[in-house]
Specification:
- This protein is of the alpha/beta class.
- The chain has a single domain, classed as Rossmann fold, CATH 3.40.50.1580.
- It is 30% helix and 27% strand.
- α2 packs parallel to α6 and α3 packs across α7.
- The radius of gyration is 18 Å and the shape is globular.
- The relative contact order is 0.19.
Length: 264
């Protein structure tokens, strides 16, 4: 049973189960709870804070500044909940760290994608702002991610990604009753130069903007042929460089903010 202090306006947040003072202003957001500790190991003195449902949170530090890692689960609804509650706890900078399916010719397994904006091909953000509003990442966060990716020994791309609600609608559109619509929309995104397909960026960017926070995302391509069923085994996903780049970007943000005195 929830205590009187639980909930959006109280102390300990209803879903994350984190309380004020337990979460840093900078937060890395993997979807998978199993990746939280792997990222947290790259921080200073990281410790587990809370675990509830798909939400696992650790907090450590970079450059002496509190930094957290919190999983969002799969898809826009749970990602929106995580961002809402993290912002209530004082988070001001959020970086999604995830995987995606490549959509353009010449991409390779393990390439990184820095998301500058997201196609809102999902349902969560329509309950925040009209569909004409663009889901755009924060420019300062994008710049830090581009710099970190450029400093790493990895191929990377920057541009627009597609956020969707149905994983199998992407992988197996032909068996869906709306197959023709799905395939036509996919062809349109590819022709328009959309780099990759994933499930959370639109929600993270939109909710962060509504809450007055800044957000960005870096993704690893784990399927270079989105309509191919041959996905890598979960323990074989190319993640190490992705995690390094994400943490390096947050470190750069911490240093930049300290130099300008814009964040605490």
């Amino acid at each position: 049973m929830s205590s009187p202090a639980d909930g959006p306006a109280g102390g300990r947040q209803y879903h994350l189960r984190c309380a004020p003072g337990e979460v840093g202003g900078y937060v890395l957001l993997p979807g998978d709870p199993g990746r939280v500790e792997r990222i947290a190991q790259r921080l200073e003195a990281a410790r587990p804070v809370a675990a509830n449902r798909e939400f696992v949170t650790w907090t450590g530090a970079l450059e002496g500044m509190p930094v957290s890692v919190a999983s969002t689960g799969i898809g826009g609804p749970s990602a929106a909940i995580a961002v809402e509650e993290l912002c209530t706890l004082g988070a001001h900078t959020l970086v999604r760290v995830g995987t995606c399916g490549g959509m353009q010719a010449g991409q390779r397994l393990g390439d990184l994608v820095v998301a500058q904006a997201a196609v809102r091909d999902e349902g969560t953000t329509a309950q925040y702002v009209p569909l004409a509003w663009p889901a755009v990442a924060d420019l300062v966060v994008v710049d830090a991610l581009r710099a970190a990716a450029g400093a790493a020994a990895v191929r990377w791309h920057a541009g627009v990604v597609q956020s969707k609600d149905s994983f199998y609608g992407e992988l197996e559109p032909q068996r869906m009753p709306v197959a023709a619509e799905l395939q036509a929309r996919w062809a349109a995104w590819v022709q328009a130069g959309v780099l990759a397909s994933e499930m959370e960026c639109a929600a993270v960017f939109t909710v962060a903007a509504v809450r007055g926070a800044r957000a960005g995302a870096v993704l690893s391509i784990v399927n270079v042929s989105p309509l191919d069923h041959a996905l890598p085994e979960p323990d074989a996903l190319p993640l190490e460089t992705l995690l390094d780049v994400a943490v390096d970007a947050v470190r750069r943000l911490v240093r930049g903010d300290a130099a300008t005195g814009t964040r605490s």
